[in-house]
Every structure is written in structure tokens, then in C-alpha cells.
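Pipeline run #58 for the internal structure catalog. This entry was flagged by the ingest filter as a single-chain record with no existing model, so it goes straight to prediction. Upstream metadata was stripped on purpose; only the residue string is passed forward. Reviewer on rotation: M.T. Logging verbosity set to normal.
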Amino acid sequence: MLKYKFLSFNILKKKKLCQFSIIMFSVMIVFCIFINGLSNGLKRKYEKLKEENINHSYIVLNSNKTYEEIIKDIEKLEHIVKFYPVMLLETNNQKLTYFDNNLIKLLDGSYPKNKNDVIVSSNSGKKINDIIKININNHTFNLKVVGVYDVNNQNFPFNNLFDNYIYTSFEFINDIVNNNNISSVIIQVTDYKKVSSVVDKITKMANYDIILTDENSLALDRYDNFSKSINNLSKFLMLFSCLIIAIVQLVIIYDNKLDIAILKSLGYANLKIFVLILFYSLILLVISIIPSIFILALITIFLKELIILNMVMFIKIFFSFLILIIIVTSFFYFFIKKINIIKLIKD
């Protein structure tokens, strides 16, 4: 085994070759992990913006059609998550309606879980657990306040038309409001990007007015497009890494071709020499992890709000490089076979 030392330890004395290989491996590891981290960071930012602007996935339909006719038209549409009528009720100087949780930003408390739970405006003077008595058709209902919303910070696509309303559970108001009095419906689309196609189909139907919000859609699109571009860049970078690894492996083999030729003249098989070259390359890859971790730690400190790095990503990139080194070194096996001591002496 001592005859193989040049490929295991003595070769590490070739400082220029080692420095070149470690630098190239380190640079590629850092770039690959950084790009993947940036892609994850942008994707997280995009998903967060989508959640904050969930109202972009909502469409409000106003029509002079009956509620049954509106339902039949909506059922013809694709990409619909859910829909429900805009139900309004005024009694005892109180205004009540229903919106799903996505369209209500709470300051305190929770969303309705029971039929008689309600959410009130921060201007109402009501507090959590207060009881509001509502008289409807000679029946008194005790509504329990479970949440408080901020009038000035809502997701409603109605331009503050429903400020200071009491928001009830769907079950409560649906039992009271007559469907014949419904002329508006709220539709949630699977994704805000599908809204335009849904709107186009609704436009082709007669007697509909459409309300939607899109003030931040351009920002959402920018993050989405940038995230996709970075993701495509990460795939290109892996291909580029393959090329870099091929160059490094070729330099390692070429720089040690005399030692390889001597071993072959002593009767050592090409396969054994191939394994030792692979072993040496893996040693350099492992060594390159040290500066890579240091550089990535610095990047994380300065760009922690923009990128997401984790150990799983690091392990994934490392094993990707490991596989690439094995594949590329296998490709150069034919080059090892052609190395000949007699030919080198003649040259």
C-alpha cells in the first residue's frame, strides 16, 4: 500500500495542485449552496406576500340574476376554491355580514368557531367575551365576541364599504338571510394568477359586475419570476459544476501522469489507480468544505433576510458533488489507460 502513497498523502505536497483543486471545489460549493439558498429565500418571500395579499385571489360578483342562476354560472368555471353569497343584515342599529377568515385581519382574539361567535370592529367599544344581544323577527340572539379586527387594516376587496360591521359565522347569518335578497357573491380562485382567466370567462357571461384588487400583483409577479430565474440558474450551475470538476480531474490526472505511468510499469491495474485518484479527489473535496462553511457563514450573517440555508441543503450539494466526481473520474478512465511509461520517456 505504501506504493500508492503518492495518491493518498504525498500528493498533498503538491501545493499548487491542491490549492487549485480546493479553491475550485470551494467556489462551486459556495455558489451552488448560495443560489439554492437564495431561491428558497425568494420562494419564502413570495409565499409570504401571497398570504399577505390573499385578497388578490378573490373576485366579487354583483348581478341582477337570482342566486340560483349565479351559482349555476360559477359551477361552470374552473380554478374555483370556494364561493359564498354576500349576506347583509341590519337590525337594532347593528350591521352584520359574513366573510371568510382570509379576508379578516384580527387585532385580538380568534375567528368564529361556534354559530353565535362574532368578530367586531376595534371602533365598536366591545371586548373579547362581551355579549351582543340582537333581536331578529322577535327572536333574541346572544352573540359572543371572540375577535376584534382593525378597521384601517383589512383585506376586504370592497374599499371600506363594510367598516364597523359585525362579522358572524356563516351558519348564523345563512339561517336568517333569504337567498332572494342576495345579489353579490365572493369567489376564491386557486391562485391569483388564475384570476384573469376566470374573469375573462365571467365577462363572457351576461349581467355581471366584477370587483377585484390587484394593487400589489406586480410585486408578487416580480418575486415569482425572480425566484424561477434563480431556480433555473441553480440547475445551470450544477451543469457548470460538472464542467469545473471535469477540468479539476483532468488537471489532477495530467499532473500525476508520470507517477501513474510508473505504477502501471510495476504491474498495478488501471482500476486500482483509478480508485486512488478518486480517493484523492474526495480528500480534496472534504478539505474544501472547511473554507466553504466559513464563507457561507459570513454570507448568512449579511444576507440572513434574503437567503435560507440549512444542513439538508449542504448535505444535498455535497453528495451531488460526490456523485459528479465519481461520474467524471469514470469518464476519464480511458485517459488513465492510455498513459504509458515508454511513451512518456520518448516525449
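catalog note: Residues 217-255 form the longest helix (39 residues).
catalog note: The mean pLDDT is 82.
status: ready for reviewer M.T.
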